[in-house]
Amino acid sequence: MDRTQYTLAELAERFALALHGDGSRVIDGVGTLAHAGPRQLSFLASGKYAAQLKDTRAGAVILGAQDLPDCPTAALVADDPYLAYAKIARLFEHRPAARPGIHPSAVVAAGARIAEGASIGPFVVVEDGAVVEDGVEIGPHCIVGRDCVVGAQSRLVARVTLVERVTLGKRVLVHPGAVIGSDGFGLAFERDHWVKIPQLGGVRIGDDCEIGANTTIDRGALEDTVLEEDVRLDNQIQIAHNVHVGAHTAMAGCAAVAGSARIGRYCMIGGDAGVLGHLELADRVTITAKSLVTHSIREPGEYSSGTPLQDNRSWRRNAARFKHLDEFARRLAALEKGRDHA
Amino acid sequence: MDRTQYTLAELAERFALALHGDGSRVIDGVGTLAHAGPRQLSFLASGKYAAQLKDTRAGAVILGAQDLPDCPTAALVADDPYLAYAKIARLFEHRPAARPGIHPSAVVAAGARIAEGASIGPFVVVEDGAVVEDGVEIGPHCIVGRDCVVGAQSRLVARVTLVERVTLGKRVLVHPGAVIGSDGFGLAFERDHWVKIPQLGGVRIGDDCEIGANTTIDRGALEDTVLEEDVRLDNQIQIAHNVHVGAHTAMAGCAAVAGSARIGRYCMIGGDAGVLGHLELADRVTITAKSLVTHSIREPGEYSSGTPLQDNRSWRRNAARFKHLDEFARRLAALEKGRDHA
Amino acid sequence: MDRTQYTLAELAERFALALHGDGSRVIDGVGTLAHAGPRQLSFLASGKYAAQLKDTRAGAVILGAQDLPDCPTAALVADDPYLAYAKIARLFEHRPAARPGIHPSAVVAAGARIAEGASIGPFVVVEDGAVVEDGVEIGPHCIVGRDCVVGAQSRLVARVTLVERVTLGKRVLVHPGAVIGSDGFGLAFERDHWVKIPQLGGVRIGDDCEIGANTTIDRGALEDTVLEEDVRLDNQIQIAHNVHVGAHTAMAGCAAVAGSARIGRYCMIGGDAGVLGHLELADRVTITAKSLVTHSIREPGEYSSGTPLQDNRSWRRNAARFKHLDEFARRLAALEKGRDHA
Q: Where is the UDP-3-O-[3-hydroxymyristoyl] glucosamine N-acyltransferase non-repeat region domain (chains A, B, C) (predicted)?
């Protein structure tokens, strides 16, 4: 059974943190500075919340050394309090372990291979040629399509669809509503109508990736759409066919990447940002929210597009002028020329 | 059985509207000014459609007093014709009532509690600790996860997933594909890889909320993501963890709100608009479509960002100049200085 | 059984292409210029990949006459190599044919009509009044709601929801997670709360349309939401109630169209572009990615909004100036006036 409580001293030792205060204090959960109680552990990781420290009723607080003097209760001092919190908080996440075995309602094709230790939930469909490795948990209503592989210890939370030729690495976590391996959007135009391009590739997802709710990842037209390891996708992200995302890149909700774009490693793509097709982004590129990337980026750094928010009346006046920017530039140059010749 | 027809006089009385014309006329449906027939009721609520009034073949029209002189048929005069239409039209929505009871294909955990009057459709999964109250209708393929509560008279249309620790109030309506209670997107960075932050909170949805198709609402990291009562979300909206949305706020399709943002009451968030994390919006703030909110808004009013649509050639010229706006500002100032010193 | 290989001469004849090189060469698949092997056919359709031609190991290449001199292997010369590729590649797409019949787990209402040649997969729900025509393939977890019609030879890949009053034409292809026929987002405001407008219309989808993964199409408020024939929608597109999309129009991922907008024929709507409600777009209008259409467009052509991507520091400086554009315009005019009067 999961343990449900720890002393502060135990936590300090286990996570190699410096303890200040009473190590025998018992902790059975985590909470925010504002609402944690005396048996809960809180954390301070951002200056935004520093003012809440002095009034906290938490049993203890994970914080940086600089905040220790202001802490009214016991403390665990960490170089990176947010990271330390992330690790400790896992102890207090009590999800019942999935029971290995195949739910009687599941429909598993004769040609599928399910490891003994895997758990297959209600109404799951596993099609021919699919492989589900050991320790995998497949929640209700998931579909593991033809020739898909779900790597060891991965978890499809619920209602995830792997369409076909999708390979997930180990410890991949996929949230409800995600669709992986759907047809890429490929069309050729013939005289007066569209002709569909067959989508013959697959999708390869590396170890430790996380795919958000209702995110879609199309399979490749000829070769594979690829996410390297530890890629983290939030909800409602769209990854088109033959995109390649480098390891450890994270994308916030509603970001979209068009076909054959190649994103580097350790990139951060902001919420609702877009990347056009066939572009390349170097490693460690950050795109801010709602920006559109229209050309390749060769240098690490932060990039943006868009205009600032204003009250609608001011915005309307300024936006109307945007339509004349080129003309303004010419008029400005003419004035300068006039002055220089005066 | 549902009644399927009403006389105009009955409708006038029931909805407290002034009747002009033959009260014995029978109405059995509603329609647009352009296409309603003599047994249908239409309405005029926007000047955009005023020109269609004179040619309408509708049996009667709901309209404001100012349009009465131009009405060629019977009329029901309302202060707010659109609102009156909304209420009357419900009479003509003939959805068969869901049959109470649990469909034999549903998988209901022993530890779940289903009210007798609730209706549970085919292939529904109800997990341990879940509560489904009276009069609830849960359509096919829905999942009511661990410790979720579906309040009385709520309806999950079909294929809705409540992941865990989600509480819906009364009369909540959730459309297909919505995912509520998925993991928030929380990550800490450790040296060279991501560490997931456990998402230990839940989601609380107030009475009379409506959640659109394929909308996603993540559960909180520590405390809950909250929608107060009568919040109306269109399709494909993304609500991140720990967002708080005030009562009666409406969001149009594809809007997205990042983590811990706090939206006021009676706000209107336009289609595909975005709100960055940790911001606050006052009550009665309107954000126009596709705008990005990058700072807190303290005053009610309408706010916007973006640039106007132009033909691509003009747009390209102007957009290129945008990259030099700061330089233009300096050159403009230099010219002014020159003039003032001349 | 599907044939799995063809000689080049057969392909040349079947698709009316000029053959250069050894017609007896056997082809059993397709591949990219960079990775195709000697039994695979590749294609060159874009200058972007021209440099890869000289090193290709493909058995043959489909290309335009102008590239023939640089081709190191056999070739099939086409006026439109991409289109020729699209057609030939279909030969090598080996999807097992769906077996006609109804999977024993499916729940089909007594009042539904399923053609004998249709294939109904596991956990499918077909409700009363629904019609599934001949040759239709309905994959696992789909819902065909009340009074929906699925036209002959259409395919719902998996987990597609047709909510109610949805009519699909022939050969319509719908990808996983799509929701068609959900309630339009219609609200009237009463004093201090919202009143829902019943959504009494349906959705009509023409022949040969394709609907992407997790795309949503609401049904009309009174009349129908309409997609004419051969409309192609990518993933995560949102089509609001009463939108009308003309034949052969294509929309890229995450595009959104608000209520009652009318899009012409042969339009191209870019990724994440938006169209406001009640607007009209003429035929052959192209909207570039992430642009917002705020007024009707009467002329064919390409239209855009937005600002170019820059490094964040430059962008911040320029964006800040955007808020003063109107003032700049006035100051510029004042300077010009001063000069003209000098």
A: 25-91
